[in-house]
Amino acid sequence: SGEMEWQRRYGIYEEYKDDMASSIQQTSDGGYIVAGSTNSYGEGEQDFLLLKLSSNGDIDPACRFIKESNAEVSDPGISPADTYITPEDTDITSEDINIIPIESEAVVYKLCSGQHTLSLSAASGGTTNPSPGTYFYDHALRIIISADSDDGYNFSEWSGDASGTDRSLSITMDLDKSIKANFSIKVIDDDIEEVRGEVKKTPCFIATAAYGSPLHPSVRILRDFRDKYLMPTKPGRVLVRFYYKYSPFLAKFITKHKVMKADVRIALLPFIAFSYSMVHFGPAVTAAVLIFIFVPAVCLVWHFRRGSSHLSFPRSPCPRRRGSKNPEL
Fold this sequence. Notes:
With 329 residues, this protein is α+β, with helices and mostly antiparallel strands. It is built from four helices and 14 strands. The protein has helices spanning 206-211, 217-230, 234-255, 258-309; strands at 9-10, 20-26, 32-38, 47-53, 66-67, 115-122, 126-129, 133-138, 142-149, 153-160, 168-172, 177-185, 190-195, 198-203. A hairpin with a 5-residue loop joins strand 2 (20-26) and strand 3. It is elongated and about 115 Å long.
């Protein structure tokens, strides 16, 4: 009769997502099996989607994968007519297609396995979309989060249960996850200076001037230390701003003197070693190394000074007599 018996909608439909069914067959238990694709769940792009439905289209009473549907039956107004089609022999010959199955290494997700928690946070210098907070998503749902930096800051990287330097990040909610967006002060690595009518690029800051390039590994180590330990704290940010304010003048002077470059590199070695240890090994290991280096040296100096304080020197063989201006011979 063309009347609607039941209707269900599965998955999500948004501008950048697309879930669809390509084939449906009735099963021996009176239910249905549906094959199609999903762009809302899984690992990315379009993944295979397979649904086993009951006779009324349900999967599980608590499954959030099923959505409300509001399709309506309407009269299409179609009238049958004679098409005057004459059947002919198509002369189609069947051939073997030789399909060989191979392992796909596919990841299987059960879409009705409850929800997971996403804890989203942002460091100083920007925010996220959706905004920082706690969110709940269906299992295997693929979501997109993005980072927005404030004026004077750049987005640096994602940390926590995600990584990458792209502002937009796609993740699959297969577990509870905590993700943080990190930002750094916007830095201009090159200062353009006009010299005798020519445009000359000179390094803008002391470390870059000493090593000749902002891409030098030593400069990167200092930059990583800045982003990881200085920028998250208010005193650290004050120190960084002070450095960026007064460093360019010294950097220009350094670039014009090769001897100064070598001297500054030597002076920066302790800072680079300290920064490398902090970034790659953490504060605990760095503190242990510093104690191992400085405590023996301090003890040695203390022992030397203590020993020298007990040294005695012979008195003069010609002491002065009290009340006499001339010494006795």
